Amino acid sequence: MAGATSQAARALKVAELSAKIFGNTFNPTGARTGNYILRQNFRGEHIVRYYPSERDLALGKVPRLSRLMGVKMYDPEEMDRLNVVEKRRERGKGAPKKGQGKRAELGKKKR
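Request: output the structure for the sequence above.
Response:
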């Protein structure tokens, strides 16, 4: 029996030295260390680039704020959108007035 414990201790010592030589972590109990998370590449830079900065968000509100103040600003994207909406409305493809949609028509037929 004494020989089995010395062999187990020797195997642990060999595993510890092997981990030290090859740069691995020695974890004889198998406890969770979170080492796999620490080995992953850092994602912070990608996340920072994904979300717009506060300055960009503030600049997005400028045309809307200027309209509320009565100052006319030229926003080409908004002008294009308004032109598309107007053309659709001319063809009868625009949104119906409030209370005159499909649902309202169904209610009138039942009465």
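The CA atoms of residues 51 and 57 lie 10 Å apart.
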